[in-house]
Write a structure and sequence with these properties.
It contains 1 helix and 4 strands. The protein is of the alpha+beta class.
Length: 67
């Protein structure tokens, strides 16, 4: 029996991203990773799933809207 080992995380971006300059997200079991789509080989930022949920709630509440 062979076991499947993924080559890496599955990166996704928002459907409202109309260009290649977007934030990409990979959601794992224990963490969420973020990277710049224009530099996929560049640095990644990892946060816990709880931190990600708090961030998303703040974004939905307008906490990070540009003035």
């Amino acid at each position: 029996m062979s076991s499947f080992v993924p080559e890496g995380p599955t990166w996704i971006r928002s459907t409202v991203c109309a260009s290649t300059t977007c934030l990409e997200v990979a959601i794992g079991e224990a963490q969420v990773m973020l990277r710049n789509s224009t530099s996929p080989e560049g640095p990644e930022v990892a946060v816990t799933r709880d931190e990600w949920q708090v961030f998303l709630q703040g974004a939905k509440n307008g906490d990070f809207d540009l003035s």
